[in-house]
Amino acid sequence: MEEGKLGGAIRAARLAQHISQEELAEMVSITPTHLKHIESEHRKPSLEVLWKLAYTLHLSLDALLYPEHAENNPDLSYAETLLRQCDKKQLHVIIATLEALLKP
After folding, report:
1. pLDDT at 68 > cutoff 80
2. Rounded to two decimals, what is the model's pTM?
3. Cα–Cα distance between 3 and 59 in angstroms, integer?
4. Four-way CATH pick for 5-102: 3.40.50.300, 1.10.260.40, 2.40.37.10, 1.10.3520.10
């Protein structure tokens, strides 16, 4: 990961979802100042905070750690987060629905 990418990816995802630094900090149980330092690359988040940020912003850790490889699409990331919560039967229903929607 290149220097400066993690904080920028977190900031971009936060802004895309219209969440203030104060709101996001509260959602992940850190101070707004700590979040400001993470976004400005003055500090690196702990693994626990990084996971909370990814989960809260509906992003995969790949999207945060390697934003140049991610599509940086919050809706797609949110759908992925929801899909990971489905059981096998629910996934089959969703797949069948998507296939039906995408048929020409």
Report:
1. no
2. 0.63
3. 19
4. 1.10.260.40
